[in-house]
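Re: Re: token formats

Sure, here are both.
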Amino acid sequence: MIVGPVGSGKSSYIQSVLGEVPKMSGKLTVGGDIAYVAQEAFIFNSTVRENIIFGKEFNMDKYTRVLETSALMPDLYQFTAGDSTEIGERGVNLSGGQKQVRMPLISPLQRSY
């Protein structure tokens, strides 16, 4: 977790770790996987499932683990089409908590889900 006052360089630091800022000199080494949780959750107009697997090959065990870990399972039971429910502009809207707390756990920058 990176915390600090406004304007202290938190976002620049994170962007550099993610490779989004050109390195002028030196060396940057990151060990292990990186998962980035943006302040604004990234949700695209598709099904709940597609927003979870994000174009990767579907793996039922991993998918089930994500649903359980993110506590999204109870929400799926409320959707008439379950994980096939369309979300976004043409589909249902997710609450702020569903977007911010649950969906980012499976963000596209995370290397495994």
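Second one below.
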Amino acid sequence: MLLSVLAEAVEDLYGYEIARRLTGDSEGSSPFKQGALYPVLRNMSAAGLLSSRVVPSYSGPPRRYYRITPLGREVLGTWRATWTDTRDFVDSIVQRARSQETSP
């Protein structure tokens, strides 16, 4: 999900902005904790999936901005294909179970 958000972004994003884009308008119903986001961003950056830069802030501590790398885009493509295959498989099993429930 993080790679998708960053792949769609026109500009570099900092952690809070990434979290806002992940949750959208669904305040409070997100399945992740914002505090868990930062270690994941650091790990993805260390793995070469993201690049980052620190920018001073006049209204608080410096902010670290993230951008997806070419390797991150490649991995995102692989993960999207895996997710699609998994979703299609689960959907076929659920549909089969529904068909069996409605059969006489």
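The chain has one domain: 2-102. Strands lie at 13-14, 50-55, 63-68.
- S.
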